[in-house]
Design brief:
nine-stranded antiparallel β-sheet, 12 helices, six-stranded antiparallel β-sheet, 2 domains, alpha+beta
Length: 550
């Protein structure tokens, strides 16, 4: 019994710490963002491999002078609007038309951003022989490229100025219908008198400011670069580690991808084959780059060399991520509970297909989990119900033995043995269930499918807080009822702590996403029903036994 109370006291203490930490994070001032846009400030990466023909370092100056404001072209598809700068052919802005801003639902969500809220761009370039990089001024093939009815793809072509020795480079950006996947490719015509073997880089540059975060004190999701290879698997890299030059990640591999991850959305480069080199650098005080460098096969004089790399820039919808690249679905990060969380999402998705509503899917998953753990929960509630019936007798023991704790403990153990009660019986089954419920918590917190998903009535977005705080108040009320159904601690201080728990959690859950609060409400209601029924049965059995003795 005391051990169970100790665990609950620790939970209470941890909650206070989390609340304070979340409050600090919520109210701390934001670091100043760099004033320059990402498109013109990032340095050009250089491969570490030396000795390859043409693999020379490119100076950090433009290959051709660029105006202050480079011309831009617009690419429109059925799911996105991309803005491409003539400087480098960078994708400097990307609006997702099927997703809306969390601040203004009338506006599209902006992933790549040229300074409105973030500095974030997809950049590419060539390394060697004065070839064009992301600072070079290209000639736009068109001011606008729109996906028309009947078309499956739309392509924008950009041409770089020829080099002094006659090398011509064209950059092509292709977007597909109904897809957040694109292809960025180069056509290199070797007009020189010698073979060339350049390198190409594909990178993201981004400021270090976090993307939109889920509601709730103490809830922080990852924003930053990530890498994946078959051998090293998924590796996240914090901006702070890059700035401190202590970032650890795979640098060379024969496979894998590089990505920039944030809550709900991701952008990634996934070369299809061959050796590659990964990098992550700090470009300026609050601007970082991360990407991959690839060798281009040797191009003989008069020949044309080609290199194409797939790009994904969109929501973390697992069905799309799985088809883009192996392991790319890992950007939906459930941490060390992935082995439990992934199957839970599959079940949640199945219920969504059945109901067509993510809110009802959450309710059905909660019911399914309660059914799965019914035997464990029943054992826990039976133990607590028996402990509750022993409450008056334990109180009399306390009054009888006073400060003699040894005699008190011995008398309690004799009572438990006589009544066949395990004081830890109500605790252990709960501990077994905790990993499952934490995994579901992170599923509901992390999946983009919840973003903008309505349930019913006033809940029109399960990923944000309840606008009227109705669900958190119901959650608090049900938590209070649960507390009253539990046996009261003999210690008055512990009893007060237990009664404060529902108030504390209600306050914390005011800012939690509605989907999470809905799960807790349903779980509490089912727990109350099960606990009330078991307590009534135990009380009835005790009364019958007493009547029989009389």
């Amino acid at each position: 019994m005391d051990n169970r109370r100790l665990i609950l006291l620790l939970v209470f203490s941890f909650s206070l710490v989390m609340l304070w930490d979340g409050w600090q994070k919520h109210n701390q001032p934001k670091a100043p963002a760099t004033a320059a846009a990402a498109g013109g400030t990032a340095g050009v990466p250089t491969p570490t491999a030396a000795g390859a023909p043409g693999a020379v370092a490119v100076p950090g100056q433009p290959a051709a002078p660029a105006p202050v404001a480079a011309p831009k072209a617009i690419i429109r598809t059925d799911v996105l609007v991309a803005e491409v700068s003539a400087q480098g052919g960078d994708i400097v802005r990307l609006e997702l038309t099927k997703h809306h801003s969390s601040e203004d639902s009338t506006r599209n969500y902006v992933l790549f951003d040229n300074g409105e809220k973030h500095n974030y761009a997809a950049q590419t370039g060539l390394i060697g022989n004065g070839l064009p990089n992301h600072k070079t001024l290209f000639t736009l093939g068109a001011a606008e490229a729109t996906l028309k009815d009947g078309q499956d793809a739309v392509t924008l072509r950009l041409d770089a100025p020829p080099t002094a020795d006659g090398i011509k480079v064209a950059k092509l950006i292709t977007f597909n219908r109904g897809s957040y996947q694109a292809e960025v490719s180069y056509e290199i015509t070797n007009g020189s008198g010698a073979p060339i073997a350049p390198h190409a880089y594909f990178q993201f540059t981004r400021d270090g400011q976090p993307a939109e975060q889920p509601g709730g004190f103490g809830v922080q999701t990852f924003t930053g670069p990530a890498f994946y290879t078959e051998t090293e698997k998924y590796q996240k890299v914090a901006f702070e580690d890059i700035a401190a030059k202590k970032a650890k990640f795979v640098t060379k591999a024969a496979d894998g991808w590089a990505a920039m991850v944030q809550h709900y959305f991701v952008a990634g480069w996934a070369p299809t084959g061959g050796e590659r080199e990964f990098f992550a650098n700090q470009v300026s005080s609050d601007l970082y780059s991360a990407g991959v460098i690839l060798p281009v096969a040797s191009i003989a004089p008069g020949q044309v060399g080609k290199l194409a790399v797939p790009l994904y820039a969109g929501p973390q919808e697992q069905s799309r991520l799985e088809t883009f690249a192996k392991g790319f679905d890992l950007v939906v990060d459930y941490g060390w509970l992935t082995i439990i969380a992934a199957p839970l999402f599959w079940v949640l998705e199945w219920f969504h297909k059945l109901t067509g509503n993510w809110g009802w899917a959450i309710i059905l998953v909660t019911i399914a989990l309660k059914a799965l753990f019914f035997p464990l929960s029943a054992a826990s509630y039976k133990s607590m119900a028996k402990m509750k019936t022993l409450g008056p007798r334990l109180q009399r023991m306390k009054e009888q033995y006073g400060d003699d704790k040894m005699k008190m403990q011995q008398a309690m153990m004799d009572l438990y043995k006589r009544e066949k009660v395990n004081p830890l019986g109500g605790c252990l089954p709960i501990l077994i269930q905790i990993p499952v419920f934490i995994a579901l918590y992170w599923v509901l917190l992390g999946v983009v499918e919840m973003r903008g998903a309505p349930w019913l009535g006033w809940i029109q977005d399960l990923s944000v807080k309840d606008p009227y705080y109705i669900l958190p108040l119901i959650m608090g009320a049900t938590s209070f009822i649960q507390t009253k159904l539990n046996p009261a601690p003999p210690d008055p201080i512990q009893a007060k702590v237990m009664m404060m728990m529902p108030i504390l959690f209600t306050f914390m859950f005011l800012w939690f996403p509605a989907g999470l609060v809905l799960y807790w409400v349903v779980n509490n209601v089912l727990s109350i029903a099960q606990q009330w029924q078991i307590t009534r049965m135990i009380d009835a059995g005790g009364k019958a036994a007493n009547d029989a003795k009389a």
